[in-house]
Amino acid sequence: MELLKQRILQDGKCLSEGVLKVDNFINHQIDPQLLMSIGIEFARRFAYARATKILTIEASGIAPAVMAGYCMGIPVIFAKKSQPCTMNNALQSNVHSFTRNNDYTITVNSDFIKPTDRILVIDDFLAYGSAANALINIVEQAGATIVGMGFLIEKDFQNGGKMLREKGYTVESLARIEALGKDLIKFCD
Ligand code: 5GP
Question: Angle, to 10 degrees, between the axis of helix 32-45 and the axis of helix 62-72?
Fold first, then answer.
């Protein structure tokens, strides 16, 4: 998606060890116009999939997922990073964060995913694929079907996309980064 790539080149900052900072338009301050364009693009790319719900992870996945859900006319569920004491029917899975070098548990109320649901997974970044795998695991526990996975930014060199595509998932990434370094952001195409 050209608009997103241009914005990454303009405002993205590469931190150490392959981490891209996009917190002035996606991860902290949010550009709603750009995010709506992203929602429209996801809706276009996954129009064929007949998704019934979108699943993402708080916090950074919520904005793009809501925009896509609005464009597709379907509800959005976000996995929580802590389990609220009000939740009884919890589906849980573990995520390893390479950016923060820690593990955490994500939780989704099983009331919100039924075996008949066709789930579109959306997240801001695809790196090694641990967050994506945890979302897949939650959908499997619910007995529902994943019909696609969409990411704003995929870091190809961290191989999460390769792993998901080899497992047979349809992965759409709006900006695929081949190489990331000091003063270098190189896209795949
Ligand atoms: P993965 O689980 O695929 O290794 O990493 C995906 C998750 O880690 C995303 O939900 C995202 O929040 C975070 N993440 C991974 N790489 C980056 C990055 O380069 N920049 C930022 N801001 N977050 C990242």
Answer: 50
